[in-house]
Amino acid sequence: MLRFPADRAHIIFFNLHLTVGGSFLRVLWNIRRTTMVFLLDLGYGWAITNEAHMSRLKLLRDERRLALSKLESLAEDHPLRPRYLDRVRELDDQIEELSALE
Question: Does position 88 have pLDDT exceeding 80, yes or no?
Answer without folding.
Answer: yes
